[in-house]
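Supplementary Methods S3. Input chains for the assembly prediction are listed below.
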Amino acid sequence: MRHLLSPLDLSVEETDQLLSLASDIEKNRSKYAHVCDGKKLATLFFEPSTRTRLSFESAMLSLGGSVLGVSSADSSSAAKGESVSDTIRVISCYADICAMRHPKEGSAYVAASKSSIPVINAGDGGHQHPTQTLTDLLTIKSLKGRLGDMTVGLCGDLKFGRTVHSLIHALVRYPGIRFVLISPPELKVPDYIKENVLDANHIPYRETTNLDDAMEELDILYMTRVQRERFFNEEDYIRMKDCYILDQEKMKLAKPDMFVLHPLPRVNEISVEVDDDPRAAYFKQAQYGVYVRMALIMTLLEVEKPC
Amino acid sequence: MLNISGIKEGVVLDHIQAGKSMEIYKYLGLGKMDCTVAIIKNARSSKMGRKDIIKIEGPLDSLDLDVLGYIDHTITVNIIRDERIVEKRCLSLPDRLVNVIHCKNPRCITSVEQELPHIFYLADKEKEVYRCQYCDEKHS
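Predicted structure tokens for the full assembly:
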């Protein structure tokens, strides 16, 4: 039995296989409509989420399976003080696979260590969000035709943005990757990512506070939202929430084949005028998220690929 | 000259950095053990100038050498039987530490679920960096 806690739980080969399966699902959806008949997915969301939870539910329903779950800590036994370990032991009796989001970092590791069903980390605080990473990889691969040999700009909250951390972990395994890290000084990529991931893998990167200057060198621009829930201090959040706003003026500085990704939800960081630009790929990205989660559920449940 | 008698059966922790013996005493839980313990502070050492030494009369099994390796892996562990050194053990940084150090990250799951063991892994041997197994926060 396998879990998915971090993007690194899958080797490059396994990731490529998963992305290939997701691409096949995209092209032949009806072929996969009953591969999970009779299987149940538990969605344990102890933190508010709309799209990730619905994406998982949509994925399981599209495979013919069913879904049960909780969508906030208030409506679960966590409100009564139940531990993650106890919750997952019980949920293991009710479902075949579980997708869990929890505000505390490392919660998915705790769940996986006590679970008798595969656990998918659907976000553990500001730590890891591997299925968003798989979504991002599938989007990049589908749009650019490759995952290496490109310059990826990461912009916004690079400190607490778990999607950014997970994406860095995943992309450094492909040759020719270079990063431009664009953030205010207070929201820079944490040292442990720089030391253990970028430096350890000899990945070229530069840090800047200026988005305009970086635009022309990017093949992918990954925008992120400054998340209110990650700040202990409201004043800090207000000061930094609109530090970067991508608009058409900035898009004019970019290459014609650069694509803009965003894990969503967007607040102010991408102006709505950018939505009509053919390089805006963030809504397409949400669709890819369903395909990749379908592929992941099939893989972890060891469901046979239909002929 | 201060004279402390030898031990018949037990352990002598030698080459402890001067001033570190009380920290080791605490980490090893020697205060809770029912055995004779002698702490020698600021002993003269040709190698170190000054050093601390701890002599423990009792079996080695009761000591967590992983903790010792974490605190100071340059310490020499001398095993004594019949008042003679029968073995010298070298320590190394342990790959994993359980309930030795604690995660201070308020966002870590261990900050709310008190029963969880505090587990750290050796992330960088050269720089002697340990990170929390749950949240990857660096121990400082």
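Strands of chain A lie at 40-45, 66-70, 97-102, 119-124, 150-155, 177-182, 205-208, 220-223, 259-261. The longest strand of chain A covers residues 40-45.
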